[in-house]
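User: I'm putting together notes for a lab meeting next week and I want to include a structural view of one of the chains we've been expressing. I don't have a solved structure, so I'd like a prediction I can at least talk through. The sequence is below, exactly as it appears in our construct file.
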Amino acid sequence: MRTYRIAPSILSADFARLGEEVGAVAAAGADMIHFDVMDNHYVPNLTIGPLVCAAIRPLTQAPIDVHLMVKPVDRIIPEFAKAGAGIISFHPEASEHVDRTIGLIHEAGCKAGLALNPATPLSCLDHVLHRLDLVLVMSVNPGFPGQQFIAHALDKVRLVRRRTDEEMRGQGRELMLEVDGGVKIENIAAIASAGADTFVAGSAIFGSGDYAASIAAMRRALASV
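Assistant: Thanks for the context. Below is the predicted structure for the 225-residue chain, given as structure tokens.
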């Protein structure tokens, strides 16, 4: 039995009431808070930074799952660790030395994740998978909320699950497999069946009007897997 985690993405929250929104999804049963960081360079959008992360950290006990869509990436990692991030993921295209960036995240006291865009080959996991705590498979092209799930991402999830299971066999530790983009009640079971255990959902939760009901419906769908 896998442990499933639902991580609402605050990119879809009402930023005028961000503190309330974080508290509301935490009370509704969120396992993690997904924190999307965009720099208008690596992706064509500009969002939020370490000061916002530090501001929401006292509002929930849930881990803050920081997804860095920035380039270059190394300089900002210590700032997010200091701001209260529990997990920091980055894109291999944004780092000159992927192994070094993973090391920086661990040295800062956080779990390290590598994020794979729809067209990023799985070869980027070669030589570093044993050092990761999380692999994030993007099921949309990064940059904007509310996009439609790219169906062939399920094939990539299956391949990543196979590799992570092989890597973790006999190690006695967990390597999370997260999917981000277009996740909703209607497709979360299929994504879990492909091998994912952690699900980033933005508009499917924050746009629903009833956060607890949406998260509960996702859990019911996952229970059917």
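A couple of points you could mention at the meeting. The longest strand covers residues 33-38. Helices lie at 18-27, 50-56, 77-83, 98-107, 153-168, 188-194, 203-206, 211-223.

User: Perfect, that's what I needed.
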